[in-house]
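Q: Given only this backbone (294 positions), what sequence would you predict?
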C-alpha cells in the first residue's frame, strides 16, 4: 500500500493478506525478472562459447514462439494473420541463413510473403469474399519482417570471423542499453520521451542507455573482437538508438491491441517477444556495422 500503510484489518479474527510479489518502479516483478534474465543470459553465453551452432536452433525456437504469441494476440483483435505460413516461412528464413547466407534469407522471405498474400486471399474458400484482406496481409508481412527476418541477421553474424563473439557483443550491448536505461530512469527519470507510446520511458533513461551502451561497445569491440575502439563507439550509439526504437515499436503495437504483454511465458518479463523487441533490430544493425567495418 502507498506510504507504507497496512492493508491488514486490526481485528483478532482478521486474516493477513497474502504478500504480493515485489514490483519495480517499472511495474515488473523485479526478483523474478532478474532470475529469468540471469538464467537466460548465462545459458546463451555458455552456448556461444562452447556450442555456437546450437544458437541457430535456439533462435529458431525463440522466433517460432514469438511469432505464435504475436499472431495469437492479433487474432484476438480480429486481425486474421495466416499462422501456418508465418511459422513455416519464419523457420525457413532462419534455417536457410546458415547454409545459404543472405540469398537464402531473401529467397525465403520473398517466398513466404507471396504465400501469405495468396493464403489470406483464399483462406475462406474459393467462393468467399475476403474481408480486411489488405489490412491482414500487410500486418502479416510486417510480422514476418519484424521477427524472423530481423532474427536471421544474428545467424548471418554467427558465420563471420569470430561470429560467436560478434553475437555475444551485440547481446551485451542490448543488455547495457536495458540496464543503463532502467537505472537512470528509476533514479533520475523526470522527462518522458514519448508519453503517448511508452509513458515510463524518459530522456534521462535514454541518456543512461547511451552511456552504458557506448562503454559496453568500447569494451566488447576492443577486448572481444580486438578491433578499433571507434567501431565500438559507433556500434554502441547505433544499438542504443535501434534498441530503444525496437522497444517503442512493440509498445505501440501492444497499445493498439490494448494489452500489457505479448505472452506470459517468462515471469517478470512477459512473453518471448517482450524480450526480443530490442534484440531484433539490434541484430540487424550489429551485423551491418560489424560486417562493414571489421
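A: Predicted residues:
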Amino acid at each position: 500500500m502507498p506510504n507504507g500503510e497496512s492493508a491488514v484489518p486490526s481485528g483478532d479474527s482478521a486474516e493477513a493478506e497474502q504478500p504480493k510479489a515485489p514490483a519495480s518502479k517499472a511495474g515488473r516483478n523485479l526478483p523474478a525478472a532478474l532470475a529469468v534474465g540471469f538464467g537466460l543470459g548465462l545459458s546463451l553465453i555458455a552456448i556461444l562459447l562452447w556450442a555456437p551452432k546450437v544458437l541457430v536452433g535456439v533462435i529458431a525456437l525463440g522466433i517460432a514462439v514469438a511469432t505464435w504469441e504475436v499472431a495469437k494476440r492479433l487474432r484476438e483483435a480480429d486481425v486474421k494473420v495466416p499462422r501456418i505460413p508465418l511459422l513455416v516461412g519464419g523457420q525457413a528464413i532462419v534455417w536457410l541463413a546458415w547454409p545459404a547466407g543472405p540469398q537464402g534469407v531473401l529467397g525465403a522471405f520473398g517466398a513466404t510473403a507471396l504465400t501469405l498474400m495468396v493464403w489470406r486471399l483464399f483462406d475462406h474458400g474459393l467462393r468467399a469474399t475476403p474481408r480486411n484482406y489488405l489490412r491482414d496481409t500487410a500486418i502479416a508481412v510486417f510480422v514476418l519482417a519484424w521477427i524472423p527476418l530481423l532474427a536471421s541477421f544474428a545467424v548471418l553474424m554467427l558465420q563471420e570471423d569470430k561470429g560467436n563473439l560478434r553475437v555475444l557483443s551485440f547481446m551485451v550491448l542490448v543488455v547495457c542499453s536495458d540496464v543503463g536505461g532502467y537505472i537512470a530512469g528509476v533514479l533520475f527519470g523526470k522527462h518522458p520521451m514519448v508519453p503517448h507510446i511508452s509513458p515510463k520511458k524518459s530522456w534521462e533513461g535514454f541518456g543512461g542507455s547511451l552511456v552504458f551502451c557506448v562503454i559496453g561497445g568500447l569494451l566488447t569491440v576492443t577486448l572481444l573482437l580486438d578491433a578499433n575502439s571507434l567501431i565500438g563507439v559507433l556500434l554502441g550509439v547505433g544499438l542504443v538508438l535501434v534498441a530503444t526504437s525496437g522497444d517503442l515499436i512493440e509498445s505501440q503495437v501492444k497499445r493498439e491491441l490494448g494489452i500489457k504483454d505479448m505472452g506470459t511465458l517468462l515471469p517478470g518479463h512477459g512473453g518471448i517477444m517482450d524480450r526480443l523487441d530490442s534484440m531484433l533490430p539490434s541484430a540487424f544493425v550489429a551485423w551491418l556495422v560489424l560486417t562493414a567495418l571489421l
